[in-house]
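INFO  loader      accepted 1 record
INFO  loader      residues=247
INFO  predictor   begin
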Amino acid sequence: MPVVLREARDTLVPDMDGPQGPLPPVLLALTVVTGLVDAFSYLLLGHVFVANMTGNVVFMGFALAGAPGFSTFASGVALASFAAGALAGGVTVHLARAHRGRQLLHALSLQTAFVIAALVVTLISGAPYTGGVRFALIVLLGVGLGVQNAAALALGVPDLTTTVLTRTLTGAVSDSTLARGPGSRAGRRVLSAAAMLTGAFAGALGALHVHPALPLVIAVVLLAGAITAVGLLSRGDAPWTRPSAGR
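INFO  predictor   done
INFO  writer      dumping tokens
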């Protein structure tokens, strides 16, 4: 079997007794969630991301230059909300530092609460989401995704940050044997990019052609599934539940 396919298989169907256990497929699901919520926020909340903060910094530059359709204030609110979520997520995971299963479970529970709150707001208010509703959604989703990213950072699973793909894709090429590198882990890295693409595609398709709230509905379903899986699999003290050596 080609190395790339073997790496992809091992990411999707990992060794449950290995150092990462079930974390890779769970983090791939969270990467899909990132694509879903960013599709919702960018398309329906006015050119703002709630997960990919690099984009918001760029958007602030566009807005400052007078480019139409971009808001310095909206991007700033998203950045501040994400930072608040990262702080809350950091506190959450550090309270369970000795057990990565509990770290992820607690963080997912907190994140899901914020995404569900955002879903309720979308269903009650109805589209288009403007004024206070728009900013309430930016805050709720920004905080939720900040929590997710804090958890992913604490878990320390290589190439599965759930948000940042630039470094992941760079590594897939620059570490390849073609570039005389040590090996690119391209299977896992390509899956990470594919998960983000899948979430963005499904989110855009649902928001534009089915119902504006559909991306958040799918996100909540994925989060609920992740909570259930992690809750069941983290009851013991398997090797993967121990703190990452790099943290």
